[in-house]
Amino acid sequence: MNDNLDHQNISFRPIRLSDAHDILNIVNYYISETTFHFSDEPIEISAVYDLIMKETNLPRYVIQSEEKIIGFGYAYDFRPENTFSETVKLTYWLKSTCTGKGIGSKFYHILENELSLLGIKNILVNISSKNLVSLNFHKKLGYVECGNFKGIAHKKGTYFDIIWLQKTLQEMTK
């Protein structure tokens, strides 16, 4: 893949079942090579199929460059109770060779606009304290730290924090 990605060739489309292997490869890279993904064992293709086939009205997209999948992201319910129906969690992974090129900002803009139209008011993300690039990326986009679970994660011989960030999309009514 060309490291000089042409932004005019970047596209976003809903996730399809045929994307499962590309998604699996992206996730399993972060599982095996970093402390950024919290799993310590590679996931199986069946887990990706389950994610794709789960019915939801929340956005789930792949990111493509010249028809090749370079990332994906999706929103999902923060908790199952109706009390939290206006709050979602967001997961986003981009191939490591494609980060720092403005693709994530463009992707988040699309996701946040769509979530806002769905009546979502709050987006939560949780990030490894070792993933400084992601923490800075989210803060640049207006996410603010709302929780820090110190030293609760252990992977690859190191302990690290899980940091929660929040972005409010719409003013809440009282």
Automatic annotation (TrEMBL):
<dbReference type="InterPro" id="IPR000182">
    <property type="entry name" value="GNAT_dom"/>
</dbReference>
<feature type="domain" description="N-acetyltransferase">
    <location>
        <begin position="10"/>
        <end position="170"/>
    </location>
</feature>
<dbReference type="Pfam" id="PF13420">
    <property type="entry name" value="Acetyltransf_4"/>
</dbReference>
<dbReference type="GO" id="GO:0016747">
    <property type="term" value="F:acyltransferase activity, transferring groups other than amino-acyl groups"/>
</dbReference>
<dbReference type="InterPro" id="IPR016181">
    <property type="entry name" value="Acyl_CoA_acyltransferase"/>
</dbReference>
<protein>
    <submittedName>
        <fullName>N-acetyltransferase family protein</fullName>
    </submittedName>
</protein>
<keyword id="KW-0012">Acyltransferase</keyword>
<keyword id="KW-0808">Transferase</keyword>
